[in-house]
Amino acid sequence: MSSLTVFNQTITNPRTQDYLAQVLGEKKASFVNNITALVSNSANLQECDPVTILYAGIKATALDLPLDSNLGFTYVIPFKDNRAQKTVAQFQIGYKGFIQLAMRSGQFKTINVRDVRDGEITGEDFVSGELQFEMLKENRENAPIIGYVAYFKLLNGFEKMIYWTKSELEAHGKNFSQTFKRGYGLWKDNFDAMARKTAIKLLLSKYAPLSIEMQGAITYDQSVINERGATYQDNQADSSEQNEKAGQILEKAFGEIDDAEIVDVEQNELSE
User: Fold this and answer.
1) Segments forming the whole domain that contains residue 20
2) Nearest of 242, 220, 240, 247 to residue 52 by alpha carbon
3) Terminus-to-terminus CA distance in the chain, angstroms?
4) CB–CB of 90/178 below 8 Å?
5) Tens digit of pLDDT at every position of the chain (272 positions)
6) Which end of the chain is more exposed for a tag (fewer CB within 10 A), N or C?
């Protein structure tokens, strides 16, 4: 039996259909179409435990973020769970997804994240310590990227900015991603997107007012979700706190799940 057939049998199972109707309501039909198309177009996802694919898709749909990875809002990433000897699907939010959730809260006037090129840092504020920037007017695309800056301003006037050098982000990726250490995965294949996501996620999680949606997004980002709870693949510095939050949110979001078990596991991302 092919892997795609196993997924199709899982999603068409009457129990699965009843559960999706209960959790997603009127969004069920579009969810089934989108997740089926996503799996059909990815041989790697077809190898994943179907339940983890469904839960990743449900989380994206619950956050009202599109599942199409080409749009850059959410991703469903295949991972190899060496401990369990099976392939699972990891839920990831892109930097566009975090910006979307922030703007949806109605508290942000401006939010942005962008690359910084050589020659665009013009100084440092003596009092605040914040860097000052000016965009290159000519041949910007030819200047090397030296870092990434994330910024937001709230409607009440509060504003905050953080800047990470490219080397700092590379070190962060290698520290928290086993796949990056091995030379493949999202950090390797799309460094720009992962660098932007890291900068904006850190800025929001540390300094911004977090809506319930944003709290859930930060908690579940980079996790594998199944009927037992959520697990985290790479070296998550705040995994204990994430595990506790994930368990609380799962109990509210999926009422049928009892005694959700949150466990850290050692897993390796599949090469795409």
Assistant:
1) 3-269
2) 220
3) 23
4) no
5) 678 889 999 999 999 999 999 999 999 999 999 999 999 999 989 999 999 999 999 999 989 999 888 888 999 988 887 777 888 998 999 999 999 999 999 999 999 999 999 999 999 999 888 999 999 999 999 999 999 999 999 999 999 999 999 999 999 988 877 778 777 777 888 899 999 999 999 999 999 999 888 998 998 898 888 777 777 755 444 334 444 443 333 333 333 322 222 233 333 333 33
6) N
| Residue written as token pair 């799309």 | 190
Q: Residue 23 corresponds to which tokens in the numbers above?
A: 């959790």
Compute φ and ψ for 182, nearest 5 degrees. Answer: -90, 0
CA–CA distances in Å: residue 47 to residues 79, 90, 105, 162: 10, 13, 37, 39
Secondary structure (H, E, C), 68-123: CHHHCCEEEEEEEECCCCEEEEEEEECHHHHHHHHHHCCCEEEEEEEEEECCCEEE
Q: Enter the pTM of the model.
A: 0.78
